[in-house]
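To whoever is covering the structure queue this week,

Two jobs came back overnight. Logging them here so there's a record in the thread.

Job A:
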Amino acid sequence: MRSPLSHFAVSVLLAGMLASPVLAVDVKDVRVWAGPDNTRVVVDLSGRAEHSLLVLKNPDRVVLDVSGARLAAGARASTAGAGAVRLVRMARRASGELRIVLDLTRPIHAKSFLTTPNDRYGYRLVIDLAGAGGAETPVKVQHAPPEARDLIVAIDAGHGGEDPGAIGKYGTREKDVVLAIAKVLAQRVDAEPGMKAVLTRNGDYFVPLRDRMRRARAQQADLFVSIHADSIRDRSVDGSSVYILSQRGATDEASRWLAERENASDLIGGVSLDDKGDLLASVLLDLSQSASLNASQVAAQSVLQQLNQVGEIRKHQVQQARFVVLKSPDIPSMLVETAYISNPQEERRLREQAHQAKLAAAIHQGIRDYFYANPPAGTRIAQLAAMNSPSSARPVLATRGGSGD
């Protein structure tokens, strides 16, 4: 049985808790990251907070009210913007909310979400802005004439902007080295007769994972190559590896596309799925996806063989995983882990332009070998392959945008 003193102590404690004011959430910093199509605003918070978002016109602006928030000591009430944001303004309202206003340079679409803490950041309120003419409005590439079009290789530098990716022991950021490798690879692809490179990002800005896929598909890419430099707890681990989409990941994505079949007609050569029964639509999509996965496997193995000439190979066989950026059902796709940035020796090499160039050259050679061994119909590569090997009886593959029929 509790003594009267214990009851008194509990009562005093509860009264104190009820009388204590609710601690406010501090807004510690605001950062704006701008790309050519999207702008991301990141608000660093000291804790979890509820918020509301409203997009207003005349003038164009985004208004966010963050419940129970206040500016941290030393935090700026206004911040210069970038991209679609001209200025960020913040002020505490009488109701106890902190109002954040993004003054815009043009009309936009906005979405926001709160991220929970990880090993690098605390709570963050993220606002993504995209507008007409951005990633939501695909721009078609002007290919070479139908009788000899260029192959399109989409090159994806992982991470970017607010997302640095893995960070090495000496501070090297994955987003920086993979962008450098991607740019060199793009130069080599563009210098290859019959090929053209497109970059999903060409600067230090964030691109959502599915937008990377959409940009590749908007450019009618024949191949998608995502460049990374991962980390692992064991700093002694080194070597390159290449991934393609797992069968489970392919099944998940097929289900997603079938649920949105009215948007999926171009996945199978322009055949609309909207008027097809579930079984027929599933079979048609499966055929397209199977061909893409088979091509992904062959292309990835070709790149892996070339990387073996540059340095250590972590996995000597192509690996499979459920990476979102590999889920385009109609584009052969691979993810290249160039090295483990967590390994101090590999981190040092990744910083060297000469080593970046070697990695880019190996990936390019693997891509080139794949396409010359499997030239898509109706491309300049198919013509060049035939000229170089006139007696070859190998079949040509019809890929996205081909005119083999």
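Job B:
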Amino acid sequence: MGDENVCYAQSRKEVALFWTTLAFFGGFAGVSAFGPIVSKLKDAMALSPLLMGLLAACPALSGSLLRIPFGAMVDRTGGKKPILILLGLAAAGIAGIMVMFYLYPEPQSDQYPLFLLFGILCGSGIAVFSVGIPTVSYWYPQKKQGSALAIYAGLGNLAPGLFAILLPFLVVAIGFTNSYILWLAMLAVLLVLIGVFMKDAPYFQYREMGIDIDPDALMLACGEELVPSGTAMQSIKTAGADWRTWILTYFYFVTFGGFIALTVWFPTYWAEFHQFSLVKAGGLTALFSLSSSLLRVLGGYASDRMGGEKVTLYSFVMVVAGSSLMVLATRSIGLALAGEILLALGMGFANAAVFKLVPKYSPAAVGGAAGIVGGLGAFGGFVVPPLMGLFIKFSGQAGYAQGFLVFLALASAALVLFVILNRYAPSEVKPGIT
């Protein structure tokens, strides 16, 4: 491999983190970017609640499903290629919507399948998340992965909250169509910049240059501890064959899935249960969404210093406490606010801690594990709200508080699974309960 003390790879890990984070931010914004379109189509097409719900959910659903194959793809190709493909698909979706509105200012109901397709394409950008996890992991040594992954995921997760606030102002200022033309132009610029400046981890660059790869020499020269093994499908099979991957998936189902679920649920909760205005309810929802995303960054630093297991444990204790307060806050706004803050704190820290553990428990299949955990874990955002809605169906208004029993049960089960996982931590000295 030449001089073992010289790294022949281009770029630096900090630069790679910047471009990967920016790619995820741009892709994840598609969730909020598609929201106003649903409202516009609801009236124009006279959509039923079921069809409207399906249209609203399609970006997040495709974004979750595509995380699995594209996350595993990193182990074979590096992160740059799948990121460009996913962002290109998202741009195609936005372009398709713009063409439809240009040709048909008043859309008809028979055009619904086309808008559903374009919504699915818009959601492709969300899948950048599971591509970025192994991409960053391959650049950073394990002792710094928690902080790096938390910066990546925490800042990228700000996109829905920020765009939910920004987009309405753009629509008012420059109009509906022009707002999306601007967003398409920004995404196109991002594609070009990533294509020119982003570089894959040293392992993939060495392989591209035809240099023989010695993992020990690669670590010595470039600081890359993890190297992929096998194909994308093999990466998924390797990660899926380890039962610990499924415990981490459940953790992420509760925390990140819960984050998505509550971002959708809280506007209705505050407006219907506490009788707040839609603006105030939206503000309190943004408080949860943005604070949970920012706390994810702090959770990464805590995971590097305390260990991912300890942070995971404490995080689920906070989710249990926050859920309990929400159940008890039948008419106490202060209690409900305290519960929301605890939920944001617990979910934000746990989201970082779980992906600190992914490279540790699946070092030979980081891409496959990231795809499984990130993809299937995100489905919590679609499973949890209907479960919470059942309490309203059977208990009426009181069900808004009782619905948080779902999170109380899920987080309590996570604590039981944590004890099992911690018992099999892959190190002689367990960094969990001491």
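Note for Job B: Residues 428-434 have pLDDT under 50 and may be disordered.

Please reply-all if you pick these up so we don't duplicate work.
Q.
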